[in-house]
Structure prediction request, 1078 residues.
Amino acid sequence: MNLISGIKLYIEKMCTESGPGMKIILLDKETTSIISMAFSQSDMLQREVYLFERIDSGRSNERLKYLKCIVFIRPTKQNIQLLANELRNPKYSAYFIYFSNIIPRTDIKYLAECDESESVREVKELYADYLCVNPNLFSLNIPDCMMNMNWLPDALTHSMQGITAVLLSLKLNPVIRYRAGSQVAQLLAKMIYDQTTKESSLFDFRANVDGAAPPLLLLLDRRDDPVTPLLHQWSYQAMVHELLQIRNNRVDLSERPSVPKEFKELVLSGDQDEFYGNNMYANYGEIGSTIKQLMEEFQRKANDHKKVESIADMKNFIESYPQFKKMSGTVQKHLCVMGELSSISNKRNLFEVSELEQEIACKADHTAQLQRIKKLIADERVSIDDAIKLVALYALRYERHANCDTSALLQIIKSRGGNTQIVPALIEYAGMHVRQGDLFNMVRITDAVKLTRILIKGLKGVENVFTQHTPLLKETLEDVFKGRELDPMYPAINSELVPFRRPPQEVVVFIIGGTTYEEALTVHQLNNAGYKVILGGTTIHNSQSFIGEVLSATSGIQFKHTKSMLKYCSPDNL
Amino acid sequence: MSGNPFDSEEEPSAASDEILEGFLCPICRADLKSIDYLTEHFARQHAEEEDALKSVFKDIFTKAKKKILNNFDDERERAAPATGTAAASASNASAAASASRTSNARTRHNIFNQLTKQSVGAERAHMEYFQSVRNPRLERYASETNKLIIRLHRLLKDLPSDAVQRKQHEQQTVPWLDGSSVKLCPNCAKSFHFARRQHHCRLCGGIMCNDCSRFLQLENAMQLASLSSTRSEPLQQLLHHEDRAIRLCQHCLWLLDTRQDMHESRTCRPLLAKVYDEIRQLQKQVAPDLDMYVKIINSLLDGESIFTIADAGALRGKIGQVAETIDLRSKRILTIHSEPGSREEALKKAIRLSCVQVIKERMLSLPPLPDEALIKQIQERKRMETEQRILTEQRMAMEAYERYGAANQVGVSTENRNFAQGSDLQSLNNWSAPQASTTKSSVDDPLIEQINIIKGYIKQARQDMNFDVVETLELNLRELQREVYERQRHSSNSSSATTPQADG
Prediction:
């Protein structure tokens, strides 16, 4: 269950099936990202793929008849049409066509009719239709999947296709469970179920011989846990995404003035960069000391090389050049990223902000927290975005609290010129009325087990004030693996597959509305504990993109649950 | 006649004055549309016909079939290698997949523990269906095109230069449609009148107006009909004639163009592709050398004596040479002319980049030659270790003996010890000791002879830098030497051990 090698094996297959010779690869926008997440350009060069071309833009009419062409596209109507045009007037000698998902037979027929010069050698479906971010994390790059609190039709089909591709590439035929009461999750579950029954021959993977329980596909709704994407993160990958944004494993630093030219665009891939692979889940402090070690090691090597006196020394230097260069590149790259992270954290007073965020998320202490929020959001050093997030967290936590004073906080935001609409929108999106499960540990006395756990946790004290919060997902997955009763909260759509009281071995979790790197860390920890979990989402959020998602999901609906904040709701209230 | 693939097909029908064309059955003269149908028809309908009759026609038929098939290489030839490569690549893919799997597992092992084995995910092939839609269509085109080419050939074979005769000849080969009832051009639907006259396609006889006519240059036509223009006199004249194109309708010209296109794209081998193939060839050849070099170096550093430093040096030199050639070739690719800003230029740069990468990462990053003194040191240390080990083993053996209380046999075992020690020293010193002993004792021993032959082979293999062979030969040599030594020991043992034997 490794998503990156799943994609890699598919691409490898394309390159070998097309045989030896110079090759060009014809891609669309999505498949370009998919390939770039798994392979670097030089990897592709080693596989004799020398040119990359987009089927949907900037095409030239140059004919290169001595090239073979690998076509790897999603089976959309537009792509089929473009490919048909290409086949009617072929520019390359042979075409090896791979679709990233299930394609209707009529489209195959149409393409066959267009291939008048008999240049097509292969037509196949290879299900590499998702972006593999980490070995256990995928994204579909759908930034906003909802509108009017319901699916955008394109996002729905894309999600269905992406998840079926994940299942097929890992050869899973799962029990499909969805979050009860979530319309979007139910709809998606039904779509996926229909697809698996329609293409049952494809999903006919031999069940485990030893009678193990079938895998589980769990469709969750972001609205159950709106807190996680709002919190500031301190693990490396999550922090980089929160402060600098990771897009398709790439970080764009061109806007940052202090960054040297060669690091304007960085590739952060755990697969290609060993340091990153080892440290992406480490927290800020750990990374600092690791980089220091790496620096020392590097310096030692650099010092060694400085003593280049004899010709033999020089030869040695040149002979170890590739590794030398590689290592110095890695050190400098991460040093540069860390420098940026620390300057942003200091400038925005993030340590103080984050501590309070964690307090709100994990402890109920209304009066004290309200005072601290008031103080912090009035502080000019705290950026307006961070201030809004604090208020949003407060509003979520104390939505039904007797002394809830969100309006007063919004007033401060307004006086600072912030966008107050975000907070009521968030409550509409994920307030108490939609949430399920106990996000803030509001324990009833009856639940004795949970109560003791919390008490013990309280007694042990907090190890790190910045990482107190654990996402709701952890609890959900622990319930799954402990074999707790799932039906009331997560009913199965294909209940005939549900095993009797046996927890699944493999779980694929998909969060509608986007997942986060903090949840990826949770999944990583579970995997290290021996479970097999894969996490995915319509996208991977940081707080900015999550707020964007909330605003677009709530656009066009009537705000029913935030009457008290009515005057802060209109979007022109900036 | 020779060189024209279509002559023989006409032969059966040549006797009658009526001209038939297509896939004709030589017996019942039915047009069967395609080769497959024709073969099937012939096998079914005429299987019980007279043998004599059959043998007459069979000859013609097979000849015709062979020639047509040659011309049909489109379908046949392409279909065959396609399936062939598919099978080959499938095995390639699995091999490559397993290779990449292992490397993946290694690199990410430290982060994720459960990612040991993963096979390629599910897939679904559509090629069969694709072909079932495409091929009948293409077959139809192919037979149509072939008909056109047969006609073109007949038309050109003895084309008279005189205009009137030429027209007659053209009409004779391809009957023109009767245009009396055609009032409009079938293509553009404009009416015919004295200013817009009817014209005929010379290949299908169809009617069109001048605007809708297309012209095929005579040179191209000759090429298509696989006639050389130098051979026939009248054509030579025609080529200098002003009216040197053949009038065609759009459809016929399209069919001919497509055919030519396909032919060109299949035979297109520009300089770039050739040089590129050379580079790939070099890369493929050098790959085993690279592995061998690493193996030699490791073996040297382990203190083994199968290879020498000179071997490593020679191989390194060879690799260096290949690297240089690859570098030169890839630079040559850069110098091939192409439009600036074109894809071809990008392609050339990418090829160069990948060559530089390969050289840098695979060839220049090889471990350097180890120091000779260092190797000596390692070998020495290893020898000492072995001796030490042997000594301790012997001591243990002795102790065991003593425990047995077989005191009178101690003398024998000490003797044995000397021999055992000697044997290991010999093999470590690169067979120098037995060599010395053989020269003075028996040269006519077949084993010794064998050893000498193998040594000759090894020398030769070293010169050819065939280090795989060197390795196996060296190992063989070791065994032989051991065998020789054992024998010597046995003979000397039996002579000196007569006393204990007598005792026992």
